[in-house]
Each structure stands twice: as structure tokens, then as C-alpha cells.
Design a protein that fits this description.
Strands 1, 2, 3, 4, 6, 7, 9, 11, 13 and 15 form a 10-stranded parallel sheet that branches. A 5-stranded parallel sheet has the order 5-8-10-12-14. The chain has 210 residues and is of the alpha/beta class. α2 links the parallel β1 and β2. It has a single domain, classed as Single-stranded right-handed beta-helix, Pectin lyase-like (Pectate Lyase C-like, 3 Solenoid), CATH 2.160.20. It has helices at 2-6, 20-29, 48-54, 131-140; strands at 12-17, 37-40, 60-63, 66-69, 72-74, 79-81, 87-90, 98-100, 106-113, 144-149, 155-162, 166-171, 176-184, 195-198, 202-208.
Length: 210
């Protein structure tokens, strides 16, 4: 799991905020050749998705406290780190909030809300013979707070997810680490999975279902 740990040690390429004042003060405190860019959404980038797309690979994007309207698709090795539960990614109840389709992606120190509740399909048989297929479609391909697909060696740490569906799905993403995650799901039988590895060897530590 050495490679998964390395995703937390990347240089900061951008500090992102919806308000310019906190960005300016944070960037000013940085020094040297690695001073990050200050990104104000609506001015320097049209959206958080646009800021992520513009970020160089193998760097860290710091999201300051605030609420970010986002349905993110990450296709390169970057680290997305927030300021704890005061950094909120919100998808408006439509789809997965963050989908990573690259190895070596890290998502840390933030909160995710507004997850959709869709599944990928329904299985007609109810005699138990199609149980594996039901799990694969209903859970593995349903909406999630964080979806990892072909995202080997990725990491999700210190993340809180409020979801009517899955918390974190790791599909074909071996050597992934999920650590210190809170998943607030639906009570009873209506919810999906807190953390679901499929076709993946995943280390899960400190999972909490409040």
C-alpha cells in the first residue's frame, strides 16, 4: 500500500474557494516556487469540475471551507483535499458525486451530500439464483458518494458521506485504501452499501455508520 500513501504527499497546485478573500490569504502564506494558484470559482474557473480539469496531474487541490456544487469525473492522478466537514461537495440528488477513473486518486478531509438514489437495473428473478447479479447491478453500478472505477491504488480518507444509496464503491480498483470514513445512510432495508469493493482488494479501516 506504499503507493496509496504517496497520494497524500503531493505539491499543492491550487487553492479553491467560492470567495476570493480566503483564497488570497491562503496563497499569500505559501512560499517558494511551489506557491499554489488561487482559484475563485466563477472568475478563474467556471466550476469545481473545470478547476479539477485544469489541475496538473500528481498535484493536490485544496478546497477551502464552503459548499461546492459538483458532479466530478476525475481522470488523472490528483489529490482533492478539503478543510474537514466544512468543505461540502453537493450533487443535488442527481448521480454519483465524485467518480474517479484513474489510478492514484486521493479524496480526503471533506463531506459529501446530495447523492442520487438510482440503481443500474432491476433483476426479475427473486428465487435467489440471480443474487450475485442483483448485487452487481443494484449496488455496484448504483449511485455513490465516491465511485472508483479502474482507480488502482486510490485513497479515500477522513470523508463523511450522507447518502440514500452507496457510500463508496471501488470497482476494479485494487490496492485502494478507505480509512476513517463516516457513512450516513438510509435506515432499514432501503439503503445500499457503506463501502463496497467489487473485483478489488481494498483495505478498509475506521468505517463508521452513525
Amino acid at each position: 500500500m506504499q503507493q496509496a500513501r504517496a497520494t497524500l504527499d503531493r505539491p499543492v497546485s491550487a487553492v479553491v474557494r467560492t470567495d476570493p478573500a480566503p483564497v488570497a490569504s491562503t496563497v499569500e502564506r505559501a512560499s517558494g516556487a511551489r506557491r499554489p494558484a488561487g482559484v475563485v470559482l466563477g472568475d478563474d474557473a467556471p466550476s469545481l469540475a473545470g478547476a479539477v480539469e485544469a489541475a496538473p496531474a500528481i498535484t493536490t487541490m485544496r478546497l477551502l471551507s464552503g459548499r461546492y456544487a459538483a458532479t466530478l469525473d476525475i481522470s488523472k492522478p490528483v489529490t482533492l483535499t478539503g478543510a474537514g466537514t466544512d468543505t461540502v461537495l453537493e450533487a443535488g440528488g442527481n448521480g454519483s458525486v465524485l467518480t474517479a477513473q484513474s489510478p492514484d486518486v486521493a479524496v480526503t478531509n471533506l463531506r459529501i451530500v446530495g447523492v442520487g438514489d438510482a440503481t443500474a437495473g432491476e433483476i426479475a428473478a427473486d428465487d435467489g439464483s440471480m443474487w450475485d447479479e442483483r448485487i452487481r447491478l443494484t449496488y455496484g453500478y448504483g449511485d455513490a458518494g465516491v465511485r472508483l472505477r479502474d482507480a488502482n491504488r486510490s485513497r479515500v480518507e477522513n470523508v463523511t458521506v450522507h447518502t440514500p444509496a452507496n457510500g463508496i464503491v471501488a470497482l476494479d480498483s485494487p490496492d485502494t485504501v478507505v480509512r476513517d470514513v463516516d457513512v450516513h445512510g438510509t435506515n432499514g432495508t432501503a439503503g445500499f452499501m457503506g463501502v463496497l469493493p467489487m473485483y478489488s482488494q481494498v483495505v478498509v479501516e475506521g468505517l463508521r455508520r452513525p
